[in-house]
Amino acid sequence: MDYLEALQNPIFKIVGTCADELNVKAYVIGGFVRDFILKRESAKDIDIVAVGSGIELAQRVGHALEGRPEVTIFKNFGTAMLKYNDLEIEFVGARKESYQRDSRKPIVEDGTLEDDQNRRDLTINALAISLNTDSYGLFIDPFNGVEDLKNKIIRTPLAPAITYSDDPLRMMRAIRFATQLNFEIELSSLKAINENKERINIISKERIVDELHKIIGSTKPSKGFALLHKTGLLPIILPELTSLQGIDEVEGQRHKDNFWHTLEVVDNISKTTDNLWLRWAALLHDIGKAPTKRFDKKIGWTFHAHEFVGAKMVYKLFKRLRMPLNDKMKFVQKMVLMSSRPIILSEDHVTDSAVRRLVFDAGDYVEDLMILCEADITTKNPRKQKRYLKNFQIVRQKIVEVEERDRIRNFQPPVSGEEIMRTFGLKPSKEIGVIKEAIKEAILAGKIPNEYEAAHNFMLKTGIKIGLKPVTT
Ligand code: CTP
After folding, report:
1. pLDDT tens figures, 357-404
2. In terms of pLDDT, which residue wins out, 86 or 348?
């Protein structure tokens, strides 16, 4: 492979020249080189390692570049960063690191390029290309990372126990890369991850979640979750999912394994949507099933109100993982809470009023909910699969029809509270809520259309029924 091709951006020549002037060696290293070889969409992050001061090199490059971009210095880390066009270029001095058992923060000393490559997480992330003029384009791959890229293998530069124990985030990274790239993790690495799994507890929740997002954002997220499960990391990070694993049998009746089912659902939904939070919803849609599982002699296995329990668990899970407790969380909760609604609906005769209620409750997210429910079909029986899909098609069609007629999405009451007060000469009181609720119910049930005239008449009737007298007509 011609590695000069990786260096087409003029920035690399500039970095090389500046490094020559400072009499230091400079290399582009890590993700940029890996992604070039993989022909992945070219990374916007470029990591430069200098055998010497990364900060000085960054400052010199900053001066040499047109527009003199600002150089941000992270003194504590000995790194510097500058933005150039749409690139983010990070400079670091080559390091030798040693770690203490209870911390991710290493003791750092200056080192050679080899020291620096040794301390990196994976062989495929330790590839470097020289930028100095006399060796421009020289490729340095001490651990056969290119072979690993070809063979699709995740391996560590040093003994895996050392690499993972040094920085336990790498356990997540190894699994994340295996998922994103569809690589296999070598056996000794899997073993080392299993042995070091408890050390994940010294990693901040934010970084763990970053890796989870990337796994969930992959083409086939189940690969990552199966690896997290196999290595024993999953019960530490997401015990709610592990609890779904297993099949119980009582009196010859079995339920499905909800863990593996969930993973199938996540893979399914990933074919249809890139919405990260909808994918999260797929991952969590059944978590309420573990705590609600019961066996009833008459009906068999039940998971009564698991959607409600699951939605509550979503909040706790987000909180524990320091994920945002904002509209994203509420969206996931809503999807979990409503995850069975279209299914119940499609099993029965699809009535207009049931569809109106569904649209009313789901609001703008009714399409997302349908996507989730379609992904939830994991039956291996082709006849059943076809039937379920067809039923959802009917529900979808009904949603369109009902919406065209009744405009239930983002429902606004056709008669305002103010008008109710004026009509009956009321001060703010409970009765207004009662009448408004009755109007809404009548519309959803299809007793009256979602129109002003009909709603106004219905208001008059309802008010009189509860003993009010109109002061105007
Ligand atoms: N690295 C490491 N250990 C970590 C994180 C990073 O050894 N825990 C090294 C790897 O050599 C990696 C480089 O630092 O290639 C840059 O890290 P980062 O930007 O986080 O990842 P990339 O490999 O660039 O990949 P991505 O952008 O997909 O995260």
Report:
1. 999 999 899 999 999 999 999 999 999 999 889 989 999 999 998 888
2. 86
Closest to 434 measured CA to CA, from 406, 413, 410, 408? 413
Contact (CB, 8 A) for 307 and 291: no
CA distances from 203 to 105, 211, 231, 389 (A): 11, 12, 17, 43
Q: What are phi and psi of 212, to 5 degrees?
A: -60, -45
CA angle 459, 460, 462 (to 5 degrees): 65
Mean confidence (pLDDT) of the chain = 93
Q: How confident is the model at residue 170 (pLDDT cuts 50, 70, 90)?
A: very high
- Residue 80 φ then ψ, to 5°: -145, 155
Parallel, antiparallel or unpaired: strands 45-51 and 87-93: parallel
Q: What separation in angstroms does the CA of 234 have from each of 104, 141, 390?
A: 20, 33, 36
pLDDT band at 36 (very low <50, low <70, confident <90, very high): very high
CA of 122 to the centre of ligand 1 (A): 9
Nearest-angstrom CA–CA distance, 280 and 241? 12
Phi, psi for 300 (deg, rounded to 5): 90, -145
Nearest CA to ligand 1 atom 15: 30
At what angle are helices 327-338 and 306-320 packed, to 10 degrees?
160
Q: 1-10, 25-34, 169-178, 360-369 — which is least confidently predicted?
A: 1-10
Residue 214 CB less than 6 A away from ligand 1: no
What distance in angstroms lies between residue 116's CA and the mean position of ligand 1's atoms?
A: 13
| Predicted confidence (pLDDT) per residue in 416-447, tens digit | 999 999 999 999 999 999 999 999 999 999 89
CA of residue 125 to ligand 1 center, whole Å: 7
Distance from the CA of 261 to the center of ligand 1, in angstroms? 32
> Considering the entire predicted model, what is its pTM?
0.91
Atom in ligand 1 nearest the alpha carbon of residue 173: 8
How far apart are the C-alpha atoms of 285 and 14, rounded to whole Å?
Answer: 51
Question: Encoding tokens for residue 279?
Answer: 């994918």
- Exposure on the CB side of residue 100, measured as CA atoms within 13 A: 6
